[in-house]
Design a protein that fits this description.
By secondary structure, the protein is an alpha+beta fold. It contains four helices and ten strands. It binds the ligand Nc1nc2c(c(=O)[nH]1)N[C@H]1C(S)=C(S)[C@@H](COP(=O)(O)O)O[C@H]1N2 and molybdenum atom (MO).
Length: 172
Amino acid sequence: MKRLMTLVAVCAIAGALSARLVHGQPANSQDSSAGTLIVSGHVPQPLRLSLSDLRSLPRTTATAQERGRTMTYEGVLVAEVLKKAGVGDGHGHGSSLAGFVVATARDGYQVVFSMGELDPALGDSQVMVADTLDAKPLPDGTGPLRIVAPKDGHGSRGVRTLERLELMSVKH
Ligand SMILES: Nc1nc2c(c(=O)[nH]1)N[C@H]1C(S)=C(S)[C@@H](COP(=O)(O)O)O[C@H]1N2
Ligand SMILES: [Mo]
């Protein structure tokens, strides 16, 4: 009987440990790094922005039609994030328009936006890093951050689970 009790106890502990291992993986959007936006590459000031850092930047909204409904996203223009990272508008010294931003998601999905289309004085695409949809956190598996490109004719540059914005250039 005592041996049986020991066996039961060992199994219970082993079960608890393996459950911890499985549930302890920081793979989903609930872990603390999931809300961090990394801003890297050719920026004067690389950043790791938390959700509250993002909320302190100038805010903007965009509406999107999804399955016949109007959805309102809110967040920060990529142009504002770049400004926070020390990127100037660069008008007049040309080279900044050879730049492009690579947006990368947690699943590895990547898209590119050119500096010219992001610039409010040029393409003014209003591309934003959204953190709310209809005033609520983004739905599971799409956030906590995503790209919204409101003037695109299709949603394929709307990077869900956005992790990083990297400024690059066609110049070496
Ligand atoms: N992280 C991530 N975002 C993504 C994708 C993806 O595979 N991974 N697919 C894109 C494509 S091709 C489309 S059409 C839209 C679909 O977005 P929706 O499911 O929010 O309508 O998501 C875009 N964002
Ligand atoms: Mo797509």
